[in-house]
Design the sequence.
């Protein structure tokens, strides 16, 4: 191989390691959160501002259960303990979300409140949920990943390929991408093919006609929260395994999640997923420093002296915000024609 | 006692009274038609019969049993079916899924009934994979009708089933309605096209401001000079 083509391979190994894999896993995490927001929006007709903090709640349960399991020595070597406790955490998160529904949202459904009223109450739920998490775990960041950290590490990759630039494939990335893929496939199968899933879509499409077809609204609401709890807990746990847990970080996830939902087209599940990856890739592509990448590709005379970073990482949330504004200005219905709730 | 009876129904939305002691009834194998001006309360009668709006007084009986206290869902499982005036399909679902949702409460195999609906409306078979929102007004009315047929109801309530369809499709829908009546079903229908509807009706009600203004067989009402002048355009 010529040194030129090796340089090109090195450049792309670099990009895979610092852009492709991180964006794929971040996108998967956002996709699960965005799908949860979409389900709540379609079935319960409000934008759930508590989504980010609910993810923190689900992750909190995962963390508590994980430390309990580790303290008892109930672990399986190589596998993150968090993964084992996710099913139980989903049960707890479901109970929490169903309780919130019972205490708060149900009332507003009953009096047929305007969507914006329910949105406001979800902001209340957001603060309460965030408060509970900080009360239980504190506000500081923590890590809860145990087990094997890498599928393969940079060093293993380099030794194997002989390249100068290595690619690390973290266990958390591998888990995120596979689990998100399976979960999304399940949700789509459920909505498109099963009787209950179709009934959920029917209920979201036309509530009165659903009632006339004998579809039980309470049951639809409960199933929605169960799905949302699963998506929320898994999204939160995977994000935490990947990047560590900090309540504030989860709270702020609301912005990229809402951006994903709106970019994709409000109320469109497939749009939410496409939007999530668009937001994730934009965020990482725009905040990545391309200096090293360009050094591999450009002749010596053209080597950059600066970092060649378009936007500082501290501004990453601004990217979601800008995407949001651009979409709302240019194509408010999003990439996949979404539908906006109009109060009757 | 008639198969379905709404007797002396009084109902209001909030404080605004809409129905004043209004009564309608229909037998099995009979087509009863409610006509009347806009805002007379025709749709409201349907909603009360279905339990989607509670009457302040009066009763609804089905086959001699008082069903006034039953929820809408329970009335559906007792054999009532309803095609609302507006929003009567699931727009972002396919024609076939619309029919499947119509048969949601059934535990047995619904494919046979879906085939029957396709036999009644062959165009729906061709369009079965299309979303309801992509259909023409007439086709959408057929989906709405088909969806209501899916529970194999003993009585069908139709609120303006020919709204927004061409005269040809209207004739088609009317002939479908006569078919299900002839098969022994009770049909209660609200219609804007009063003349045509009364022509095929066994029984008619003229509703004005929530009151029964005229009642009689279809022929009687058409031949009644007052009804003709006021509601049938002379
Ligand atoms: N949800 C509602 N809340 C308050 N008032 C209503 C509601 N629905 C209907 N009304 C009022 O009740 C009255 C009767 O309405 P209804 O829909 O029963 O009339 P209709 O005879 O079916 O009219 P149309 O021929 O236009 O369908 C009208 O004055 C209408 O404005
Ligand atoms: Mg009406």
Sequence:
């Amino acid at each position: 191989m010529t040194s030129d083509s090796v340089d090109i391979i090195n450049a792309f190994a670099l990009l895979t390691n610092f852009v492709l894999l991180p964006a794929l896993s971040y996108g998967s995490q956002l996709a699960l959160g965005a799908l949860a927001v979409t389900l709540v929006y379609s079935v319960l007709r409000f934008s759930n501002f508590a989504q980010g903090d609910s993810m923190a709640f689900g992750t909190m349960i995962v963390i508590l259960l994980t430390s309990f399991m580790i303290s008892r020595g109930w672990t399986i070597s190589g596998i993150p303990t968090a993964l084992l406790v996710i099913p139980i955490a989903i049960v707890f998160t479901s109970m929490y979300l169903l309780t919130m529904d019972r205490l708060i949202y149900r009332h507003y459904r009953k009096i047929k409140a305007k969507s914006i009223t329910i949105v406001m109450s979800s902001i209340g739920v957001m603060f309460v949920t965030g408060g509970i998490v900080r009360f239980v775990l504190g506000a500081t960041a923590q890590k809860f990943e145990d087990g094997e950290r890498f599928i393969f590490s940079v060093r293993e990759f380099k030794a194997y390929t002989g390249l100068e630039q290595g690619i690390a494939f973290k266990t958390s990335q591998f888990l995120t991408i596979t689990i998100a893929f399976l979960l999304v496939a399940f949700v789509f199968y459920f909505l498109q093919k099963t009787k209950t899933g179709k009934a959920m879509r029917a209920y979201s499409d036309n509530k009165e006609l659903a009632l006339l077809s004998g579809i039980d609204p309470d049951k639809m609401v409960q199933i929605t929260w169960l799905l949302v709890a699963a998506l929320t807990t898994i999204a939160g746990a995977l994000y935490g395994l990947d990047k560590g847990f900090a309540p504030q970080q989860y709270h702020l996830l609301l912005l990229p999640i809402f951006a994903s939902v709106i970019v994709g087209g409000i109320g469109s599940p497939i749009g939410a997923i496409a939007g999530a990856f668009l937001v994730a890739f934009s965020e990482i592509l725009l905040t990545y420093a391309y200096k090293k990448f360009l050094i591999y590709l450009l002749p010596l005379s053209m080597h950059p002296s600066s970092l060649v970073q378009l936007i500082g990482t501290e501004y990453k949330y601004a990217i979601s915000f800008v995407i949001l504004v651009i979409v709302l200005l240019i194509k408010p219905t999003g990439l996949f024609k979404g539908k906006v709730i109009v109060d009757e | 006692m008639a198969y379905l009876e709404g007797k002396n129904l009084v109902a209001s939305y909030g404080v605004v009274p809409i129905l004043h002691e209004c009564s309608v009834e229909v037998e099995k194998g009979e087509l009863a038609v409610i006509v009347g001006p806009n805002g007379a309360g025709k749709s409201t009668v349907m909603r009360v019969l279905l339990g989607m709006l509670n009457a302040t007084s009066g009763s609804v009986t089905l086959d001699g049993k008082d069903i006034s206290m039953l929820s809408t869902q329970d009335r559906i499982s007792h054999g009532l079916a309803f095609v609302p005036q507006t929003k009567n399909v699931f727009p972002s679902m396919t024609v076939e899924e619309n029919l499947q949702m119509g048969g949601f409460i059934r535990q047995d195999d619904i494919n046979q009934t879906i085939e029957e609906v396709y036999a009644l409306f062959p165009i729906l078979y061709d369009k079965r994979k299309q979303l309801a929102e992509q259909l023409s007004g007439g086709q959408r009315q057929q989906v709405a009708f088909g969806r209501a047929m899916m529970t194999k109801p003993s009585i069908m309530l139709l609120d303006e089933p020919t709204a927004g369809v061409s005269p040809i499709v209207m004739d088609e829908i009317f002939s479908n309605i006569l078919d299900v009546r002839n098969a022994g079903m009770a049909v209660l229908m609200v219609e804007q096209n009063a003349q045509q509807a009364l022509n095929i009706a066994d029984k008619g009600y003229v509703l004005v401001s929530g009151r029964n203004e005229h009642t009689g067989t279809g022929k009687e009402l058409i031949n009644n000079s007052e009804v003709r002048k006021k509601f049938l355009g002379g």
